[in-house]
Amino acid sequence: MAVNGTGPYNPDNIFAKILRGDIPCKKVFENGWVLAFHDIAPKAPVHVIIIPKKPYVSFIDFSKNASADEIAAVMQSTGQIAADLKLEESGYRVITNAGQNAGQEVPHFHLHLLGGKALPPFPV
Ligand code: 5GP
């Protein structure tokens, strides 16, 4: 069931557990600000989840409370991952789901990077 995109951060969410190393992930990229890993149930041949290491519930929480350096790090990392995965020529999609109406399941802000095939018309 989709989560409420507001409220306090829940440190028991699945991405927090991945960040702590409590559960494994297939890592794609990591730096001081960001971790990226393959989605466990990919919706396209390339489906990478990009997360800030610090705790934010949603896009609004991140945009309000992250530093400019951290916001830049998430954006630059996402672009670098898309380029490294050779998606630039074929095309790709970057989305975030926030709150119940968007179907957000994991209450730790994240971007989905999707590509590797012709994607269905937005929204996917
Ligand atoms: P949301 O619906 O919150 O935007 O997306 C959450 C995503 O996290 C889904 O695409 C789902 O497949 C993925 N996911 C959920 N649990 C895990 C997990 O344990 N490991 C990984 N790698 N991805 C997960």
UniProtKB/TrEMBL annotation:
* GO MF terms held by the record: catalytic activity
HIT domain boundaries: 14-124
Checking Pfam families in the record gives: HIT
Signal peptide positions (record): none
Q: Motif (Histidine triad motif) spans which residues?
A: 108-112
| Active-site residue list | 110 (tele-amp-histidine intermediate)
Q: Which PANTHER family match?
A: HISTIDINE TRIAD HIT PROTEIN
Which protein is depicted?
A: HIT domain-containing protein
